[in-house]
Amino acid sequence: xxxxxxxxxxxxxxxxxxxxxxxxxxxxxxxxxxxxxxxxxxxxxxxxxxxxxxxxxxxxxxxxxxxxxxxxxxxxxxxxxxxxxxxxxxxxxxxxxxxxxxxxxxxxxxxxxxxxxxxxxxxxxxxxxxxxxxxxxxxxxxxxxxxxxxxxxxxxxxxxxxxxxxxxxxxxxxxxxxxxxxxxxxxxxxxxxxxxxxxxxxxxxxxxxxxxxxxxxxxxxxxxxxxxxxxxxxxxxxxxxxxxxxxxxxxxxxxxxxxxxxxxxxxxxxxxxxxxxxxxxxxxxxxxxxxxxxxxxxxxxxxxxxxxxxxxxxxxxxxxxxxxxxxxxxxxxxxxxxxxxxxxx
Length: 345
What we know:
Elements (H helix, E strand, L loop, with lengths): L1 E4 L8 E4 L10 E9 L2 H7 L16 E8 L10 E3 L10 H4 L23 E4 L6 E2 L6 H21 L7 E5 L3 H12 L3 E6 L2 H9 L4 E4 L5 H8 L4 E6 L4 H9 L1 E9 L14 H6 L3 E4 L8 H9 L9 E6 L3 H7 L8 E6 L3
Parallel strand pairs: 8-9, 8-11, 9-10, 11-12, 12-13, 14-15
Antiparallel strand pairs: 1-2, 3-4, 3-6, 3-15, 4-5, 5-7
Helix pairs in contact: 3-4
């Protein structure tokens, strides 16, 4: 099969012919119909993710068609599926308690497992998969990827955001835009922060009540003023020290900060304003992924039109265009995300 392979950090992915994947007993083999390009892929491409080594096939935001089924999997050839990036075992105490996204034996395509920048992917633990709803395109489904599911769990499973509360979103990339769209659908009032004027204007067009350029003054103080005392919930969607502190400092008393951006490599350790946490008695949450059982409610909101996630998709590219998209993460990005929709070229 055709696949994009990481041969050296920060070098173009090599488009190669590699062996077809092998179907595991509790899994399926999927023909990839579309795969999102994610900042997490960039962390691996630059060499900052400890589980991504040369020889890896990236890609964890995929949608596809089942072409082979293991004897223990409850799917059929021809089924169209969406996959969470965390493939949990389903049997451990964490999985049984509903917290499959912290499964200690989880497997993650693209991070220690062959990913979906390829024509086919082997998916173990196929009980994690969700059926692609009728009428949802593979490109949109792949665009949901880890960004929409992670934002959904951050808002509903961690911060428990309520209608009428103020939500601040720091960084309007894929996760930030997802948090904006989902937050509004849940009844929150949303303000956003970025350093790219085009992205700020895009967020306002999608319903943000205010947009702040982080380069212009004390953004936390401006959010406190605009929201009449501070945000109730703040999402950090970049994984860097400056935005993590701005997220904490923009909150009102008893506010909830959710760390969604990935702090890894040179950002793994940060100097954080713990005095603000103490004085305002804040709650700080980490979050990663989403338990697979939460897919139905999210997909139902999208399919019945309660939220339109299509503004998230900015462009589609062939597999050979993935390297260009990864390089773009080195600088300010335009609004929206890229999805690979042709795995044959």
